[in-house]
Amino acid sequence: MAFNSNEFRKVLGNFATGVTVVTTRDKSGIPHGLTANSFSSVSLEPPLVLFCIDKRSNCLPAFNEADAFAVNVLTDKQKDISDRFAFSEERWEGVKTRTLQTGVPILEDCLANLDCSMHAQYDAGDHIIVVGKVEETLIRNEGDPLLYFRGKYRGVHIE
Length: 159
Description:
Order of helices and strands: HEEEEEHEHEEEEEE
Radius of gyration: 15 Å
Strand order of the largest sheet: 3-2-6-9-10-5-4
Structural class: mainly beta
Helix content: 10-25%
């Protein structure tokens, strides 16, 4: 039976995902970032992760030319950060950052941060799959994850 992209999106919405903000710098040093729930681990040896970026994203040129990016795993207290990097033109205003090994912006107060060098990019339909080699990590042992399920933010309380 045939289905359309809206039906496919609805089906995929039944898979709960964590919410991340992926950041980089372009060749001029200007920071760029976007909200992504298409994040996954790929390999332990070497340590590889991936995220997918829409080919229509205004951040795509920055990620295409970048040699590094960071994945910032959001807490359930960072819904505003997720919304800002998904919808706002003022993404960076008032956002606390630091840098690690690669020099890309790392968002403060996240559950985890992965500082990655660019490993590969693959064409995949209307998206690009971006694979990074994890160079350095930060982990915060408190807080709960921000989740996305059926088109809405959700949280989970782990005890």
